[in-house]
Amino acid sequence: QLQVVEFGGGLVQPGGSLRLSCVASGSIFNEYNVSWYRQAPGKQRELVASVTSGGITNYADSVKGRFTISRDSAKNAAYLQMNSLKFEDTAVYYCNAVRFVSIWGQGTQVTVSF
């Protein structure tokens, strides 16, 4: 059974950057479609970005041009590079891997503030 763990959250000022990592174990990660979701307080969880097992990417309109999703099969990892961060990017960010079943990480907090 695949397991995923997120790393890299933290406090950053508006305009700054963070790189989130999703590290997988227990199965062949490169066979999974991987997505990053986020959930802000009082809001529903929303899709931020996704990358298929074949490398096709997709982004929410709110992050296009600022965030980049990538994956490294050799490291069993996926990443979310977040640039030009805004206050409204504050949320808990979750890694999700899907291949017949949906696997979630525990989430990592990203706070954009002065």
Provide a compact summary of the structure.
This protein is mainly β and 114 residues long.
The topology string of helices and strands comes to EEEEEEEEEEE
Number of helices: 0
Q: Roughly what fraction of the amino acids lie in strands?
A: over 45%
- The low-pLDDT segments are none
Describe the fold and architecture.
The chain is mainly β and 114 residues long. It contains no helices and eleven strands. The strands form two sheets. Strands 2, 4, 5, 6, 9, 10 and 11 form a seven-stranded mixed sheet that branches. The radius of gyration is 13 Å and the shape is globular. It starts with a strand and ends with a strand. The model has no long low-confidence stretch (mean pLDDT 96).
Highlighted features:
single chain, 114 residues, mainly beta, seven-stranded mixed beta sheet, four-stranded antiparallel beta sheet, 11 strands, globular
Helices and strands in order:
Layout: E1 3-7, E2 10-12, E3 18-25, E4 33-39, E5 46-51, E6 57-59, E7 67-72, E8 77-82, E9 91-99, E10 101-104, E11 108-112
